[in-house]
Design goal:
Helix content is 31%, strand content 24%. With 524 residues, it is of the alpha+beta class. The protein has an 8-stranded mixed sheet. It has an 8-stranded mixed sheet with strand order 5-21-17-20-19-18-9-10, sandwiched between helices. Strands 7-11-8 form a 3-stranded antiparallel sheet. Residues 463-477 have a biased composition (Polar residues).
Amino acid sequence: MDDIPPYPPIDPTTFDLIVIGTGLPESIIAAASSTASKSVLHLDPNPFYGSHFSSLPLADLPSFLSSHSTSPSPPRSPSSDDPNEFSLLEFATRPLYSSIDISTFSPNLLDQHSRKFNLDVAGPRVFFCAEKSIELLLRTGTNQYMEFKSVDATFVGDNKGNLWSVPDSRAAIFKDKSLGLVEKNKLMRFFKLVQGHLAGEQDIKISEEDLQSPFVDFLNKMGLPPKIKSFILYAIAMADYDQEDTGVCRDLLKTKDGIDQLALYNASIGRFQNASGAFLYPIYGQGELSQAFCRRAAVKGCLYVLRMPVTALLVDKDTGCYKGVRLASGQDIFSQKLILDPTFKVTLPSGSSPPLPLKEKLPFFSLKDDKGKIARGICITKTSLKPDISNFLVVYPPRSLFPEQVTSIRLLQIASNLAVCLPGMFVLYISALCNDDDQGKKLIHAVMNTLLTVPLDSESNAAVQSETAENGSAVQDETSESSSGGPSDSGEEKPTLLWSALYSQELTLVCFLWLLSYVYLLSY
């Protein structure tokens, strides 16, 4: 293959485990296996770590998205003389991204400094200070390979451009001027009940019946007003779907799970001295997570080879059992176990029907569980959405922007102190679950039209206005003045968009414990 660099042969040629793809799940498995004294070969066709969990320079992101928006032909191995005892099952990749829309409004400024941006392919993603992911980093020592900074605040947004602060303590509740005295008292009583239940106090305990009921019903039972319910359900418990509409809600949150989320949120606040809020974000972007686990794996003996596509799976012709992989360099590498990036799939052999043992096991090599789509937007501006805060999270609850909005929309603004952009600039990540590309674009455009000034001479601005009008929302009317450069409803001028990338991503749920179990089965 002409575009594959001439790699020297890999030695040894047999490993306990081969991992293809350096995404976060694969990197964690590689680190765990290496720590358990297993010999691991970790391959990636990309010239960088992280795969679909990477953070890329601004100039590289569009090409990466485009390259994974179609199914390329699998690379062919230069060797055509296959051993008689093996069947070759060729690899292919399935498209992951669609409806890609890149807009640039300040090309000279951004092109000169492209390498100073680290843009997350799968943003936004923040971490609770007390969540299991952080515990894993600390327990394994992987935290020594990366750093985090605190996300300063959390807000709930509406279609008028208002951002309401989410109170994270008793002091914050009393200081919050947006809450009335009655609302504050009800919220304090609710938190007191939750804290008593978590502490195991017998006289303050939530009944088992309530714990198994929908969380929204429990909040209604507690007499909490709509605004407070919205804060708890979508900004603290992080519910994705409209919890009050069972007809559209695909994931109804139970009270037990909601209470657990409140406990996690409470345990996260002030856990670390340098993090005052509940959330953390990695310096240099999400891609540092995969790299940290890869570094951990390398220290434990894992062998890494980047820029190395894998062309085919080696399968025993008689038993149908997995034996190894063929690299684009033509070399065959063998292992007992195999972990595949979920975007890879194995194509069926052409021509004659495969032997029965192989035919029975082929479906396992292409397992996937599609969970719909997620719409993503990345925006670059020179002005913060909140003049006095640089890094913060905004949640738009269902129905908060337009009546047909049935999912939450999340926005994360981060600044140059997290080493993701030029000084004086800001990166906004927007995401929302959706059924299709059109619905996803409407959700992202609704947020952009509410918060940002899109240059009027751009096609993207026309699309934003068109999508918002189709939604029948009040966003266009509320923000039309500021979209043309005028002041926003809060009396402040909206940030002007310099660059944006909008795209949809397929969601695929892969249980790696299940994956490991069937790979074990295929190996014996």
